[in-house]
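hiii so my PI (J.) wants the whole complex modelled not just the main chain, which honestly fair. so below is everything: three entries, each one labled with what it is. i double checked the lines twice but i was tired so who knows lol
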Amino acid sequence: MVAKVAQIILSPILALVIGVFFLSLARKIMARFHWRYGPPLVQPVIDIIRLFYQKSVSHGQMFDLGLILSLAGSIVVVLFLPFGPICPLSGSGGLLVILYITLLAPLGMALSGGQGDNPNISIGISRKLILGLGYEVPLLLVLLAVMTRYKTISIMEVVSAQQRTGWSLTSLPLLLSGLSYLLILPAILGIRPFDVSSAPQEISSGPMVEYGGKYLALAKIEHAFALFINIALFVNLFLGGAANPLIFFVKMLVVFVLGLCINAVFPRFRIEQAIKYLWKWPALLAFLGLIVTLATRG
Amino acid sequence: MSLEILLIIAFGGAFLTYLLGKVSSRARDSFAVAVSLGLVAFVAFLYGKPLEKTFYFGFLDLDLVLRLNMLSWFFAITIASVGALSIIFSLSYIKAREKTDFYYLMMLLVNAAMLGIVLAGDLLSFYIFWEIMSWSAFLLISYNRGPALAAGMKYIVMSIIGSVCFLVGMLSLYVSFDTLNISQIAPAIASASHGYVLFILIAFGIAFGIKNAVLPFHTWLPDAHSEAPSPFSAVLSGILVRMGMYGFLLIFYVILGLKAFLALGQGLYSFHYILAWIGAINIVIPTFIAMLQNDSKRLLAWHGVGQGGYMVLGVALGTKLGVAGGTFHIVNHTSYIALLFLVVGAIEYRTGGVRDLNSLGGLAKRMPITFIGALVGACGLIGVPLTNGFVSKWLIYKSLILEGHPFLAFAALIGTWGTILSLFKFLHNIFLGQLPEKYKDIKKAPFSMQLPIVVLSLVILVFGILPGIPLKVINTIGTSFGFESLNVTLWGITSETGTLNTINIFFAVLGAGLVVWLLFRFAAKSVSVPQEDSYAAGARTPADKYHYTVEFYNPLHRMIRPFLRDVIDEFYYQIASWVRAFAQGMRRIYSGDVGYYVMYIMLFLAGLIFVQMRWEIW
Amino acid sequence: MDRNQIAKWLEAPAKMANKYSLHAIYFCTGCGIIEVPPVITARWDAERFGVIPVATPRQANLFLITGYVSVKTLRPIIRTYEQMHEPKYTVGFGSCPVNGGMYWDSYNTIKHLDKYIPIDGWIAGCMPRPEAIFIAVTHLWTLIDKDMAEGYVRYRKSYRAYRRNQEMALGKLDWPPLYPVSDEPRGDEQ
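here's the output for the full assembly
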């Protein structure tokens, strides 16, 4: 019981620390790609502290509550996601519940931004939702392949099955699905070439155009959580999870640096180009992966 | 306390309301509300009492049977509740229109007829009540005149075709088994041949499919739901359409039985698997067509078609989780689609009949309770955790994944994303964004409209956080069909292949929300700014133009619009135009010229003489 | 830089955080904006000072007025400055905001920007080199440390004077006053 409570409190804090570390790592590594020095590793922390001390404007009750709902949703997803051996609420519905609770975060941002009285916000949210539909088509096929192969909807069981039989990414039935997941990971994380929904130059930061002060700080924290959640999900399902949190973290780091390399090289897709890409090769690979999984099921 | 008294109160109340309306409108209003609430209380009182009563009126030598089992009670309480809430909503909505007595008569009559359908124990009384429901619905759909007349005509033509198929099936059953009593047909049909069973299923399937708006019989639904008055749209989309689902449950599980249903055909060509695929296609295509709509009621109507796919999918699977999920989805869908139609009705009432999504905006500032109702309804329709939609969808998905149907699961899951997109467009274009000048002084919805909205929102949330309450009833229904019992607790379902625990999710969200709110509170204060003080690159925000609604998903529309034409609707209109062309051609015979008529008679006589001379028939 | 001195952080975290996280709004006023892209890209890397450009005034706390200010541009400058959140710092960049610079005798430019919005520091030059911008940033840090970069406080205290100057230059202003100019109480403050 005490261990459970400790896990419930520890898990979001750990996710926050790792997420903010990923944010700082992103800026530093991107800078090094550009042959410059880049900010110190604590820069996102300095930004968030400054934002909490800054005043802000609010456009109404929904503006505040939507953002609170969004961040609360991210924290709840973290509670349901195994991180090494830490998983407080694993026995409450599994992968399906996670798929649906991850809807709370963009929903909260969308509602909050909707009260922002700014068409840039609406354009950003419409693009975010269209991009969400875009990557969900291959993502659902991939997740269904995983669930069909391991005959379970619980992530902990997928992780323990991989401890026995090896990584999903290198197992023959799930190889295509894993490749497809790797191809759509930039879209899920919202990094280039898929950062169209918050394009600073084009739609003035999209949903974050009216966020200042504590709102922007919470949005940045939510971004950190989103990075953690999506990479942790991939590591759990395809790279075997880990019994040791340190090894888990190393795996997440490798995946994240891979994503950063793509972020550094590519420009931004338009939303139609993004959808055309997501529904072409990754969807085809995921579809074939699902067929292969069905065919090789016992 | 028996069933015929329930029906007498229901029908008698309808006619008495009409007569009272001729005397005084206030008395009629209170009486209508009293009758509908009384029916709810009555049905609630009958919980758990299996009743059966046989009547013999000497009509065609047939017994008419009324019976109440758990399935009937489940539907009856839903019918009575939605009916009562719609009548309460109509108190303000209909007040300023003409023919309000007629409206109340028809609403109560539809209510009573639907109660009769679920209480019917033999097919003849089922058919009688089905017909009463169909034409009273037709009269209500056409209530608004104008384009509603065409919508009503489309509905009644398709409904009559369905009723004729029902009649064919019913007559065939009578000829084969010499009885129309459902409990007597059930054991008899188990021994019939597969071909005959398939014929019966198709005959009844067409009838119930037309009513339930299963593709390809769905084309009447978008027009009918958008043109009907909003409280009746809530009833229509909420429960009247699901009478088709009641029919499906009756024919598949009560009459045919589980084993026979699953044994029809084998492997990929089994009847229930093809039906599951029809359900899956029924989820995907309508929810994406809903995204393209610009009329708020049409958008919701297409969702009515789409969510029916979930129910058909769940029921056709034939597993305990699937049927539980499909049946639970019926009452869930009732709650949120009725809520959303009532919300649209409140908006129509306050803005003077505006349904166009491109011209509204920002109304959350002026109508907060309506907005919260719409938000809860939208979350329920999407299936956000802590709403009842999530529980029923979870059951269906789990059943699909564990039985090894990942492509059906994919269709069901992608439908959710279509729902998210279209409902966000609905919420955003009506409630969020910039408030137009002409709606700056709009008042809140009146109390009689807020009450049903709040009640339905509470139902959605309570059934989502404590799903054990309705799941207990559904478990009883499932065991009566022959499935083994689900392990249902107050807040979820436990099983060896994964549990659902909604109270955990609820407390997690509450706890996380509290932590974030505290963090929010103790940061620097924020200042409230008016709508005009928004970022516009240093310029003044243009009044009435700083709002993005038209073509909300334009990039996606351009890509998928060619694939989402309603070709079935065009096909039916093509058939209708061929019939009209044929009839136009036949009309030419009556040319009005007596000489032609004499020629026809001469030719016919000549033909008869030729036949007699050649083949000597007479 | 005293960015990693924990004692100073614990003593005055707001000041330290405001110093090392200056987000500049990407507002292209005049010819000076041509000097900003080299500053924020790889050759002269401003991000190591904590300075990055952001797209909207709501997210910014540094306003660089990079060049001459015509009367037409003064409106967006004032609107943008008022939409920024406190604490905020403005820096006049180039000779033109200081005293008119090259356009000292033009009918169409503003000669002394300090009369219309408060300026915390000036960078002389036409155009200043990127190194001058970095020196200005470090100067701004010193001012923030000594509580001397109080332009926004000045704006709040003397808003009536600033608004009168703005009305004299621009005619009727079509935005309401940011702070109350009469004795009426202000709108709701959470």
